[in-house]
């Protein structure tokens, strides 16, 4: 009898412990954590099928504001994804590159160097910049190594985010609603906008711009010690892995006088990158070449608006295709249907952003749960007013439960097939095969392309 009672107590105690552990896991995974567009973007990256992305773009907010993967796919046929977080700092870059290569083996890697250009130690010591990436990195050796190197004194806070974010419930829009967005992506099986973000605003300034003199300005300024150490570490990693399909860039900015030190630090970055044999392109001095209008295509000094985003995506996308030889990989039907649906999502995203600009309503727009509801309402309103149906968008954000599709291919994991009304007719199947091994995937263009450092 006593043995039975002891067994019952043990079972109850074990059940209580398991219930507490499950509660803690749920709270820190979905409720008591800091959630924003960075969470959804990084979750979306890990929803992409392994070895299905042709181009990886690494950097800070310029990457997901200036380049739209859905639009690049529509124009050039290859897939891409931004591994980028707000205010990204130099400490994160190597891990971002390593994890991207291990998961996707892309044909081309574009590294935007903004995270190497901050001038003060405080910028690199800011916990929020570090957490926006590491908090959204899946548990594993890479995450543990990154935390051990740069935040070993707060190890438990990073392993158990609930210790840091126990009061997040006070800000539901910043936490729970963004978590709902990521959960919706998980349920759907893919990110429908691939992490893109914009603001419905046209920025103008009366200050003198120095973009036209970028290519002639050979000023140099020493990099911050942390930035220099991390940049060398990143370049050493590229050399050790024999990566030849990497280009370092500076995305477009409006260059005013107070930003000239950043230009001079970017020139120093270009020098170091050239020492390792890689291309460095500073697009600050190529606005006209990219078709960008300084008075119409930015929403602040550092980011392109929806008009500039489409222009620069076409410009950079064509450069990757024509100069660096990036071609479309072979996608299976389920993957192609997903990407074709993303084209339609992006079209609606653009229409909504442009309408807000016309109405002079400044608003940040991305892939959040609330943004998708607003875009869906706008599309439905336009349907009523024009009589033209865009009913494919009525599935957002409440898509039907995904159909799990079994795959016979060993390298891919297929999560869901979008509704047939998402598919784009006339989109022929690519006959160009993806590199099947890492060694082949890492070799893109062996000859230098003749692009000098700006």
Structure in words:
Helices cover 46% and strands 6% of the residues. It is α/β, with parallel strands linked by helices. It has one domain: 3-Layer(aba) Sandwich (Rossmann fold), CATH 3.40.50. The radius of gyration is 23 Å and the shape is globular.
- CATH architecture assignment: 3-Layer(aba) Sandwich
Distinct helical segment count: 16
Number of strands: 7
Low-pLDDT runs of 5+ residues are 394-454
- SS strand fraction: 5-15%
Any chance you could write out the topology, listing elements then pairs?
Blueprint: H1 2-31, H2 37-47, E1 55-59, H3 61-66, H4 69-76, E2 80-84, H5 90-104, E3 108-112, H6 121-125, H7 127-134, H8 141-150, H9 155-159, H10 176-188, E4 198-199, H11 225-240, E5 246-250, H12 260-275, E6 279-282, H13 306-322, H14 333-358, E7 364-365, H15 369-386, H16 438-441
Helix pairs in contact: 2-10, 4-13, 4-14, 5-8, 5-11
What can be said about this structure in brief?
Helices cover 46% and strands 6% of the residues. The chain is of the alpha/beta class and 454 residues long. The termini are far apart.
């Amino acid at each position: 009898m006593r043995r039975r009672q002891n067994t019952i107590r043990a079972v109850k105690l074990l059940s209580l412990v398991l219930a507490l552990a499950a509660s803690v896991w749920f709270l820190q995974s979905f409720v008591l954590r800091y959630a924003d567009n960075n969470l959804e973007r990084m979750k979306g990256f890990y929803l992409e099928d392994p070895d299905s992305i042709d181009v990886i773009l690494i950097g800070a907010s310029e990457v997901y504001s200036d380049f739209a993967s859905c639009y690049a796919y529509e124009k050039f046929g290859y897939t891409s994804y931004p591994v980028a977080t707000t205010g990204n700092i130099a400490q994160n870059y190597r891990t971002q590159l390593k994890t991207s290569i291990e998961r996707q083996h892309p044909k081309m890697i574009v590294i935007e160097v903004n995270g190497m250009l901050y001038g003060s130690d405080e910028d690199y010591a800011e916990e929020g910049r570090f957490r926006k990436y590491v908090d959204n990195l899946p548990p594993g050796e890479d995450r543990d190594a990154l935390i051990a190197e740069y935040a070993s004194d707060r190890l438990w806070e990073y392993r158990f985010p609930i210790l840091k974010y126990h009061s997040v419930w006070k800000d539901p829009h910043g936490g729970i609603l963004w978590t709902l967005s990521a959960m919706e992506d998980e349920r759907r099986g893919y990110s429908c906008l691939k992490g893109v973000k914009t603001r419905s605003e046209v920025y103008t300034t009366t200050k003198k711009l120095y973009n036209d003199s970028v290519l002639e300005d050979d000023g140099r300024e020493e990099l911050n010690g942390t930035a220099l150490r991390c940049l060398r570490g990143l370049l050493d990693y590229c050399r050790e892995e024999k990566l030849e399909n990497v280009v370092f860039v500076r995305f477009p900015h409006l260059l005013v006088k107070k930003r000239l030190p950043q230009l001079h630090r970017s020139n120093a970055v270009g020098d170091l990158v050239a020492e390792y044999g890689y291309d460095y392109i500073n697009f600050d001095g190529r606005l006209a070449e990219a078709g960008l209008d300084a008075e119409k295509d930015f929403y602040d000094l550092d980011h392109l608006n929806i008009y500039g985003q489409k222009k620069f995506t076409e410009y950079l996308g064509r450069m990757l295709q024509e100069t660096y030889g990036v071609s479309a990989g072979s996608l299976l039907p389920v993957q192609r249907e997903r990407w074709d649906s993303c084209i339609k999502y992006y079209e609606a995203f653009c229409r909504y952003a442009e309408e807000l600009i016309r109405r002079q309503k400044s608003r940040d727009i991305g892939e959040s749960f609330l943004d998708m509801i607003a875009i869906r309402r706008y599309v439905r309103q336009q349907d009523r007013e024009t009589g033209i149906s865009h009913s494919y968008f009525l599935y957002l954000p409440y898509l039907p439960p995904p159909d799990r599709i079994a795959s016979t291919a060993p390298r891919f994991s297929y999560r869901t097939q979008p509704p047939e009304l998402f598919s784009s007719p006339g989109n022929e199947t690519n006959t160009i095969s993806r590199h099947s091994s890492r060694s082949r995937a890492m070799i893109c263009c062996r000859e230098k392309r003749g692009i000098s450092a700006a």
